[in-house]
Amino acid sequence: MQLPKGFLFDFDGVVVNSFESHGAAWSSAFKELFNQDIAPFPKSHAGKAPMIIAGYFCSLIGEEKRTEELYLLKDKHLDIHFKVPKLLSGVREFTTLLSKEQIPYGIASNATKQFLKNSVHHLELNFPIVFGVQDYIKPKPAPEAYITLASALGFHQNDFKDIWVFEDSLTGTKAAKLAGMVPIGIMTQFSEEDLKEAGSVLVFPTLLEAYEYLVK
C-alpha cells in the first residue's frame, strides 16, 4: 500500500512503557512535599500534561496552590532517579522503514523534555525531532503539539489529512483528530472500542502490528 506522507508518534505507551517510572516519581515527590501517600493514578488523566496531573493530586488534599511545586519536584525526581523505560514492539522496525523511505517522522509528547531526552539517548532511538510539553502553549488534548511537530517536519495544513498519528491515550487521540490528522490507536491502555470512539481510524496492539499492516 502507499505509505502516508508522514508519521507522528506519542512517546509514553506508544514508543516506550514508562508508567512505572512516572508513577514512582509522582509518588516520591508527593511524599517529600506533603509527607503522605499519593492517591492512585486516575486512568482519566492518562496522556494529560504533567501540570494538570499535579493539579489533580494537589486538589485531592486541598493544596491546589502548590500544584507547580509538585510538578517541578516530580520532574526533578524523574531525572534524579531515571530508569530506562521499556522499548515497545515495532519501534525500530518503523524508524528503519521511514528512514529508508525518506518519510518525515518525529515525536510529540506531553512528557517533559528532559525525560524524553534521557530516554531517547539511553535507548539509542532514531527520532530526528522530539518535542515535549515545554514546547507548546497548549498541550494535548489541544492540537498544538501535533501541528507544531508537523510544521517542524516541513508539512503544511493541506498535508495533515495524509499524516498518521500514533496514540495510546484518549487525550492524544483527540489532539490528533483536532489537528485534522489521522489518529491511529495503540492498545497499551485503552480498548479498541474506546480508541475508535475517541477518533482512531485504525487500532493495533503495538507499533509492530501497524508496521506489518503497512508493509504487507
Secondary structure topology:
Layout: E1 6-9, E2 16-17, H1 19-34, H2 50-59, H3 67-80, E3 86-87, H4 91-101, E4 105-108, H5 113-123, E5 130-131, H6 144-152, E6 163-167, H7 170-178, E7 182-186, H8 192-198, E8 202-204, H9 207-215
Parallel strand pairs: 1-4, 1-6, 4-5, 6-7, 7-8
Antiparallel strand pairs: 2-3
Helix pairs in contact: 1-3, 2-3
Radius of gyration: 17 Å
What structural category do the secondary elements indicate? alpha/beta
Mean pLDDT: 94
* Count, helices: 9
Largest sheet at a glance? 6 strands, parallel
Strand content: 5-15%
CATH superfamily of the largest domain: HAD superfamily/HAD-like
What is the class of the largest domain in the CATH system?
Answer: Alpha Beta
Helix content: 40-55%
CATH architecture grouping of the largest domain: 3-Layer(aba) Sandwich
Order of helices and strands: EEHHHEHEHEHEHEHEH
Distance between the termini: 8 Å
Count the beta strands: 8
Strand ordering within the main sheet: 5-4-1-6-7-8
CATH topology of the largest domain: Rossmann fold
Total domains, how many?
Answer: 2
Uncertain spans, ≥5 residues at pLDDT below 50?
none
Tell the overall outline.
Answer: globular
